[in-house]
Amino acid sequence: MFLSNTTSRTLPIFLRFRSPYRRLASTKSLKETIEEVIPVKQAHLKKLKTEYSDVSIGDVKVGNVIGGMRGLRAMLWDSSVLDPEEGIRFHGLSIPDVQRALPAAPGGKEIIAESMLWLLLTGQVPSAEQTRELSRELAQKGNLPPSVASLIDSLPKTLHPMTQLGIGVAALNHDSSFQAAYEKGIKKSEYWRYTLDDSINLVARLPALAARIYRNVYKPGATLPEIDPELDLVGNYSKMLGYGDNHDLTEYLRLYISIHGDHEGGNASAHTAHLVGSTLSDPYLSYAAALFALAGPLHGLANQEVLRWQLSMLREVGEEVSHDTIREYLWKTLKSGQVVPGYGHGVLRNPDPRFIALQEFCESKPELLNSPIIQLVKKTYEVAPNVLKEHGKTKNPYPNVDAASGCVLYHYGLTEFKYYTVIFGVSRALGCVTQLVWARALGLPLERPKSYSLEAIEQLAKSGSP
């Protein structure tokens, strides 16, 4: 972990002295900062290879192989680690830590995507000026190529927004710096530079792409505002969506996109980006593949399911809802053979810190405290864990981030359910492109695990052979 000397004083004492690589200067560019960090990471990786290559860090059981590889320690992802009890940490920093340490937008209080991206890529807390310079760079590079804009405009309005987003991101590959440089011939040690160029361009263009899809599908005929060079990435995104005058929604989107940006590497979208990137596909193709993983109901579509369920409960029980009424509705859901959406997680065994951060945002806004749907989310959280514990079939009876995220968007008037995962897609790029850059900087190989048939697995299990 790398922290600035000026900002580290505001962090918990155990974080201030964990690493000798604290930041002393605050004038370097993002690329210069990454270049400074690369030798340190490369030396660390070399040490791991030299001293620990033959050391086992876990067993592989049949249940892991046939159970979605859950729990296998089989992937390097340096920017974040998900602890079952604590939740996510970004280079050692918890969500409350980054809320205190990372710069906000001028006039705002919430983390912004630029400061989170800088932290993920460098392990360092950027200065306010570094964050503003990155905002200006992203704004300068944020317009879509005319060919991609025309392609998106030609798609059927009935095509799912996530499908359109994946198509648009893949089409940006037309201008890939990495692909052009690779075809000309470059040293492997230079791969990361062109990957970074593509990654910055991708992050910069996602808001314009996502907003164009929103306009075409839900607001046909509306004029798309120009990118404002003085706004941050999400400030421009909110403006292009038509919500630029809604300061609270813009602040919510800043928080949402920042804390959704990375959730270690084993989730489906992040792993897909890493896998495809390991073939030396450029960031556009790699992230397009990740978006199609994110579009699945068991991954990025989950917040839609939560909101549908909450609205269904609201219609049935009314706005003046009690804990007892919610308890009855929860049992009705469980006894019908359904799960309670927004509760449980593949790794976490406590309430998701991202959910807590979104709840704290709601509690700071009087209009959200008076919202029936937000109140229902809060009261459900007060009841659901005990019901799920009594039910006895849920490893984690606590809420994940999806339990709150879509409901806040709905309250603010962004009610188009199918679009919610597109916002998630704008966010998740932060972590995925970080890994792509570092995979090239560290020279990580093509990912190629070994697979077995049912019969082969059974034979291995019976023989006890590794």
Structure explained in plain terms:
This protein is mainly alpha-helical. Helices cover 58% and strands 2% of the residues. The chain is built from 22 helices and two strands. The protein has a two-stranded antiparallel sheet. A hairpin with a 3-residue loop joins strand 1 and strand 2. The radius of gyration is 22 Å and the shape is globular. The two termini are 35 Å apart. The relative contact order is 0.13. Mean pLDDT is 92; it is low at 1-25.
Notable traits:
mainly alpha; 58% helix; 2 strands; two-stranded antiparallel sheet; disordered N terminus; 466 residues; 2% strand
What about the largest sheet? 2 strands, antiparallel
- Proportion of beta-strand residues: under 5%
How many beta-strand segments?
Answer: 2
Report the principal-axis shape. Answer: globular
Report Rg: 22 Å
Helix-and-strand structural type: mainly alpha
- Rounded to the nearest angstrom, the distance between the terminal CA atoms is 35 Å
Q: What would the average pLDDT be, to the nearest integer?
A: 92
Low-confidence stretches: 1-25
- Order of strands across the biggest sheet? 1-2
Number of helices: 22
- Helical content (DSSP H or I, runs of 4+): 55-70%
- Order of helix and strand elements from N to C terminus: HHHEEHHHHHHHHHHHHHHHHHHH
